[in-house]
Amino acid sequence: MTMGRFDRHATGRSGFHLERQFLCLAEQAPDAAWRCIVENGWPGWRDWYVSRGGSSGSAAGRSLRAVRRYMPEMESLLDKLVGDHPEGDLLHQFLSFWCPPRYLVACTQLASIDHDGPFLIRNYDLDPALNEAIMLRSRWHARPVLGMVEGLSGMSDGINAEGLAVSLSFGGRINSGTGFGIPMIVRYLLETCSDVQQAIEALRFIPTHMSYNLTLVDAAGALATVMVSPDRPAIVLRRPWATNHQIGVEWPWHARFSGTMERAELLSELSSTEPPTAEQCKAMFHREPIYSRDYSEGYGTVFTSLYRPNAGTAEISWPNGVSKTRSLRDQGSAEITVSYSSNDSSAALKDAQP
């Protein structure tokens, strides 16, 4: 999930095909699932972090001070996650995600309420080779959390046992500053906040190193989108959706490339009268332009996820009809094989366990 990796296939890949194994894992304290995440993800993240200057000499002290100031609840958890890892100092610094190198994703997200209660749906857009492809159910801190892994210990989207669901999308601004990377912020919200209002207050306080949009929904049906940036206060909207711009298009190239305005118009229309149902949203999120299939250009929708705060469930799905639902109570594991070709994606369940 880096600027450099985002562009690496910009010349196109005729006949492109990639097969990924998505894992659904569960654990209480950091244990076998966490070791699997680190073994699979740390080499690539380490190269990205070091090669782009994230490991400068004084960064470790700054990151620890930032965690203690803005996220004190996370300090002991980070210590547990690092444990006796041979690169413990570097790993600890990385996991804090304080002032990381610049990176971006695209993504589309929407919250609504239907006959089964509130829900949050999102498409995650990136080069499918770069996503960690892991859904994790954990109880690393004070409550169970379920969501998609991003940056080893961070998350791109998820839900907690209190009924708060959170999803991120890139805010369409190239500016960067002093703050945390957004996967760490999402993890923090899910570990410490119980509802939308608590999450809003946290987002007003915690600095972010780039611009992102976070869409929130809770078990009571409260909805909000919070636009965070390194150089201006958080903007709170009672609008239940977000694409890849904030108060307007501020990075024209990215707006054209991602089609953020076109997607925003569709979401606005979908939400303009009655709140859309989950089935209506899934139908829209599984087709263009919300669902991107530009995999040969190193960019496309990697997965669609849908969270139900009242049920405590997360569903991951693809347009060919394959889906897998996990619960905050699940203890088993499952595997999903997903194929991405030049202009399509499909999935199949493999060795699923309850």
Features:
single chain; about 350 residues; alpha+beta; Penicillin V Acylase, Chain A; 10-stranded mixed sheet; 6-stranded antiparallel sheet; 10 helices; about 30% strand; globular
Q: How does this model look, in words?
A:
The chain has 354 residues and is an alpha+beta fold. The chain has a single domain, classed as Penicillin V Acylase, Chain A, CATH 3.60.60. It has ten helices and 16 strands. The strands form two sheets. A ten-stranded mixed β-sheet has the order 10-9-8-7-6-5-4-1-15-16. A six-stranded antiparallel β-sheet has the order 11-2-3-12-13-14, covered by helices on one side. β12 and β13 form a beta hairpin. α3 crosses α5 and α4 packs antiparallel against α5. The two termini are 31 Å apart.
Beta-strand portion reads 25-35%
Number of DSSP-assigned strands: 16
The CATH architecture would be: 4-Layer Sandwich
Q: Count the DSSP helices.
A: 10
What kind of oligomer do you see? single chain
Major sheet details: 10 strands, mixed
Fraction of residues in helices? 25-40%
Could you name the CATH topology?
Penicillin V Acylase, Chain A
CATH class placement: Alpha Beta
The number of domains is: 1
Could you list the spans in which at least 5 consecutive residues all have pLDDT below 50? 1-12
Q: Based on CA inertia axes, which overall geometry fits? A: globular
Rg, rounded, reads 19 Å
CATH superfamily annotation: Penicillin V Acylase, Chain A
